[in-house]
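Thread: "does anyone have the structure for this chain?"

Original post by V.I.:
We have the sequence but no experimental structure in hand. Need at least a predicted one for the grant figures.
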Amino acid sequence: MFNNRKPQLHDSPSREFSTRGVDQQNSTPRRDFLRLAFNGIGALALGGLLSDEPRADGDSPDPFAIRQPHLPRRAKHCIFLFMQGGVSQHDSFEYKPELKKVHGQPLPRIPDISGELQGRLSFPHAAIGSPFEFKQHGESGHWFSELYPHLAKHADELAFIRGIKTDNQNHGPSTLHVTTGSQFHGSPSIGSWVTYGLGSPNRNMPGYVVIQDPRGAPVNGAAVWSNGYLPAAYQGTLLRHEGAPILNLRRAEGVSTAQQRREFDALAWLNRKHLETRPGDSELEARISAYELAFRMQSEAPELVDLSGETQATRDLYGLDDSATAGFGRQCLLARRLVESGVRHTLLVHGVQIGVHSWDDHSDVQGRMKRHSREVDQPVAALLTDLQERGLLEETLVVWASEMGRTPFVNGAMGQNPGREHNSWNLVMWMAGGNVTGGSSAGETDEFGLRGIGEQIHIRDVHATILDLLGLDDEQLRYQHAGRLRRLTDIGGNVIDEIIT
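Reply from O.Q.:
Generated one for you, tokens below.
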């Protein structure tokens, strides 16, 4: 299934060092020789590693200077759609007729279950079959529930990945795991890695833009789009849903463009002098770059978020005049505009914390999934349609994700409006655009949709695949931090070849 690109390790042949035939008076003691040789070889190896490291912050004073990708790929931009709370795969893209047959009963005994899933299954529980009808669509025959009539029309453009494993069933760590590759705070997000690796073709906008749900922030807040240990320039820039698109961007009243230009030039000179005494201070470097970027954004950013010039046909396509779809519709339309302007990576978040506006449906999965899906189905389909009609889908990778899947059961009594529990063993994602093979799929799940079967797909494999589809090799995209070379995939991921053309 996977393309394993890991280098093979070979044992070096043993060698004996001898002082035989050497002038003993001038020779180095064997112990000292070994110590010096070891340190010298180690230094050479370290030097080689450091010289290989892509230093986006060191090669150019501009952190967003365009860099050549490692691989020939069509996608130049990425739109990452993150559904906060844990989308129920059973009620969206996973058709499991066997689950309906045991609805209301405990699941049959399933072997080799461990961890939290084993704990949940050991307590009283009831299987929950999906209340929604499923149909196959397109030549691919992908299954969609009735909740996604618009997205189903794009069946042959989507590549599904099923049975994805994350390492935690709690929202906080799992959200970070999917968006940054680590369960813990302090690691760079996917968008930070992408802009670090590729730079950005737009000099008047941030390379990495975030548009969150207008109702509030996701779990972990800004940590979801953090730069982590990468230079501060690579953090995501939050685009607000109302008022000034970016805080403190608007020029003060009575200040002309020429006057502000002189002020920024003076400020830049002072900051550069200050930086000379603090070389390598990425936060200070980022602040200097941010002032210059802010000056250029003052004209472009307000125009980008002004949707008044869009046609009624476009407004209807995205559902901007429908209260149910207007919020995410605006996010998706802005994402298309950002791609047109050259922004490298855009993160859209749907869902707020863990509550009524998230996908965390522990109860009333039927009613809540109707509402969530209604809010995103038309806008996401519109985004794909719009990108395709404008010739942009081929150069844009679109990713649908959540932090986890859901269980095919609910713990305790089923009740009148049952929901689903957390499940880190069966996250379902899809991708479209670029070199994605439309209509393909990878991974397989058991008859109840509890977990993947066969070769396990881990979230780091998905991350390696995202990078690959953007022309980045996860083993070459690395950054020296805390004494070692760090990567998005950490210990490494395997590219999922089945979904790549």
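V.I.: this helps a lot. Confidence is low (pLDDT under 50) at residues 4-26, 33-59.
O.Q.: and The chain has two domains: 25-54, 63-499.
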